């Protein structure tokens, strides 16, 4: 993009991160004619190109893509864009926004000056600003546990962020650790490629793809689930720790049923806990993990049934999922050599890494504390985090609402007005 700008010592607003969240804020700041600069460590939208596997698809239908001024613009609203289509959609968004951006600039440190402004130290010089938006995302530092150091040096290991396709991996069985969205989808990708897969499960829930005539996402949308705020949710801020449900948009969308994979030859284990030098050690909770996933699946369907009944909606009859496969025993140990494991894929998520942000806005786990993206530190905002405000915040469906709200907060702060906790002009 030909949107590079020359360095300027002081700006009203700096946005850190050039993904869809950062550019959404830029869109609204431009509407309000507020001068700002986007600093992007690599290139705009780079994570969608570099940190997604070849067969990656959205797990939510295309119609939910609704970035500022850029709703879904192709001919499969009920389909699920693949990685290359997502990248193209986001490029069209960036071309519309035309953000003032400096790409290839790493933010090394942000600190608070004595007058309350922000000092921004980068790989391309120093800046200062009155307000700053952190749009670097919630998936920053890939988690690889310390037990990985115990595994043999010649065993191939990689994080899900690096995975592209089965051809990357050496011969032998593949141990996939983690059954959240990435783990379950990558396990399926390998399984469909006829690779031997050993899956160490966790407590991730699952969800149906289609139920009673519609995609479950459409039912949940109609029921208002994507608009429930953190403050309204029974778990309050604890909902931000929830694991996403596993499902896939692959081949037009379908459920992921680990029990069916087991019937087809995938080996399932409970939570992996350690390695004793010869054996991988697992917690005896495979049955509990599968039952928990199915319980969530059934509960969501039951809520849909209730909604259909209460609203008097005509829909196909309800169906009940029956578990056709049960583990015959809990296997707490697996000999690494006997299992012929040639590679390990760590699919256990990410941890926050805001070490470069020197501001008193973090909890004991290193997560930023905020209300709808607004921190207690005047002029410091976050966007693009899961459950920033609603379930939709971490999706293409909710980022526009979050960005508009933050842009209004920035405008009020710049005008010296009292910053409100809510804006009546934005529907919740």
How would you characterize this protein structure?
GO terms for molecular function: flavin adenine dinucleotide binding; monooxygenase activity. The chain is of the alpha/beta class and 428 residues long. The protein folds into two domains: 194 residues, 3-Layer(bba) Sandwich (FAD/NAD(P)-binding domain), CATH 3.50.50; 201 residues, FAD/NAD(P)-binding domain (3-Layer(bba) Sandwich), CATH 3.50.50. The chain has eight helices and 22 strands. Helix 1 runs parallel beside helix 3 and helix 1 crosses helix 8. The two termini are 34 Å apart.
Provide keyphrases for this structure.
alpha/beta; FAD/NAD(P)-binding domain; 2 domains; five-stranded parallel β-sheet; 8 helices; 22 strands; flavin adenine dinucleotide binding; oxidoreductase; FAD/NAD-bd_sf; CHP04046_FMN-dependent; Auxin_biosynth/cation_transpt
Question: Which overall shape is indicated by the principal axes computed on the Cα atoms?
Answer: globular
Helical content stands at 10-25%
Mean of residue pLDDT values: 93
Termini Cα gap = 34 Å
Range of strand content: 15-25%
Largest sheet: 8 strands, mixed
Task: Please tell me the CATH architecture of the largest domain by its name.
Answer: 3-Layer(bba) Sandwich
| Alpha-beta classification | alpha/beta
CATH classification class of the largest domain: Alpha Beta
Poorly predicted regions are 421-428
């Amino acid at each position: 993009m030909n949107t590079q700008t020359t360095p300027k010592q002081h700006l009203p607003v700096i946005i850190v991160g050039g993904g869809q969240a950062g550019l959404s804020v830029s869109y609204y700041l431009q509407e309000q004619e507020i001068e700002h600069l986007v600093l992007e460590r690599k290139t705009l939208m780079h994570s969608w190109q570099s940190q997604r596997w070849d067969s990656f698809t959205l797990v939510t239908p295309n119609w939910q893509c609704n970035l500022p001024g850029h709703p879904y613009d192709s001919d499969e609203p009920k389909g699920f864009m693949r990685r290359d289509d997502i990248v193209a959609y986001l490029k069209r968004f960036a071309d519309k926004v035309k953000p003032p951006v400096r790409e290839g600039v790493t933010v090394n440190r942000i600190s608070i000056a004595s007058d309350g402004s922000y000092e921004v130290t980068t790989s391309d010089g120093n800046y200062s600003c009155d307000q700053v938006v952190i749009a670097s995302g919630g998936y920053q530092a890939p988690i690889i546990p310390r037990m990985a150091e115990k595994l043999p040096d010649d065993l191939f290991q990689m994080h899900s962020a690096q995975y592209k396709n089965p051809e990357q991996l050496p011969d032998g069985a593949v141990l996939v650790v983690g059954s959240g969205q990435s783990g379950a989808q990558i396990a399926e990708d390998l399984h469909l490629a006829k690779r031997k897969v050993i899956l160490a499960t966790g407590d991730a829930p699952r969800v149906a793809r289609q139920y009673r005539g519609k995609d479950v996402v459409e039912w949940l949308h109609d029921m208002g689930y994507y608009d429930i705020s953190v403050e309204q949710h029974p778990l309050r801020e604890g909902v931000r720790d929830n694991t996403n449900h596993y499902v896939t948009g692959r081949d037009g969308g379908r459920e992921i049923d680990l029990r069916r994979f087991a019937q087809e030859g995938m080996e399932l284990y409970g939570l992996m806990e350690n390695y004793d030098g010869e054996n991988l050690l697992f917690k005896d909770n495979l049955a509990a993990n599968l039952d928990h996933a199915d319980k969530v699946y059934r509960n969501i369907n039951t809520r849909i049934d209730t909604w259909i009944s209460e609203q008097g909606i005509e829909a196909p009859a309800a169906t009940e999922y029956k578990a056709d496969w049960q583990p015959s025993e809990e296997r707490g140990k697996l000999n690494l050599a006997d299992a012929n494991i040639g590679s390990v894929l760590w699919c256990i998520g990410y941890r926050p890494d805001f070490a470069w942000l020197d501001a008193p806005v973090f909890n004991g786990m290193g997560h930023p504390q905020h209300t709808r993206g607004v921190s207690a530190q005047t002029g410091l905002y976050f966007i693009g985090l899961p459950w920033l405000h609603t379930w939709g915040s971490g999706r293409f469906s909710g980022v526009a609402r979050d960005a508009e709200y933050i842009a209004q907060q920035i405008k009020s702060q710049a005008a010296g007005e009292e910053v409100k906790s809510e804006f009546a002009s934005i529907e919740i």
